[in-house]
C-alpha cells in the first residue's frame, strides 16, 4: 500500500504532496517494542534502534483507571506532517552520510518502522522526493527516479508556463504532473 508522496525543495519547503490512502496512526499502539531501521547503499548495512513504549494507568480509590497511551494529537495536519517528514529525512540523511565517509553522497535510501517505510530520492538540484508506504514494500528508489525523470522534468521543468521557483504558498499545480504521478503510483499498487 502506498500512503503518500512528498517533494521538498532545497529550502526545505514542501512544494508538492499527494495522499492515496490513510496513513497509519502515530504513537504507541501496543506494549511491544518498536524497531526502526535505516537502509543505505553502503557496506555498513542498516542501523537499528529500539524504542520501547509503555502504558501507564492511574488508580486512585473511586476513580477508574485512565489509559494514557492514547496519542495526544488526534487530528493530523499536513503542514506538520511535512515538517516532521523533512526533519526525519534531513537528520537521517546527514547521519548516513557521516557514517558512509567521503563517498556518502547517496547513502540514505529508506527508513523503515513497523508501521511504514519512507523511500527517499534526492535529485541533482537538491529536490527531495519521499514516498511513504507500508513496511513490506521493496525499495521504490527507482520509482522515485522515474517520477523525477519522466514526470517532473517533462511536465514541470520543461513547462514554459510553470514558475521557476515553488514554495509552500506556491506549490506545484500542474494537472499533467498530478495525473501522471497518480497513474504511476496506482500502477505500482
Q: What would the average pLDDT be, to the nearest integer?
A: 75
Major beta sheet, specifics? Answer: 7 strands, antiparallel
Q: What is the number of helices?
A: 3
Total DSSP E strands: 9
Task: Name a few traits of the molecule.
Beta-Lactamase; 189 residues; ER-Golgi transport; alpha+beta
Characterize the structure shown.
By secondary structure, this protein is α+β, with helices and mostly antiparallel strands. The protein has a single domain (2-27, 35-47, 77-188), classed as 2-Layer Sandwich (Beta-Lactamase). The chain is built from 3 helices and 9 strands; from the N terminus they run E-E-E-E-E-E-H-E-E-E-H-H. A 7-stranded antiparallel beta sheet has the order 2-1-9-8-7-3-4, with helices on both faces. A two-stranded antiparallel ribbon has the order 5-6.
List the helices and strands and how they pair.
Elements: E1 2-8, E2 14-19, E3 34-40, E4 47-51, E5 57-60, E6 63-67, H1 78-100, E7 108-112, E8 117-122, E9 128-133, H2 141-157, H3 175-188
Antiparallel strand pairs: 1-2, 1-9, 3-4, 3-7, 5-6, 7-8, 8-9
Helix pairs in contact: 2-3
Write a concise synopsis of the structure shown.
With about 190 residues, the chain is an alpha+beta fold. The protein has helices spanning about 80-100, 140-155, 175-189, and strands at about 1-10, 15-20, 35-40, 45-50, 55-60, 65, 110, 115-120, 130-135. Strand 8 and strand 9 (about 130-135) form a beta hairpin.
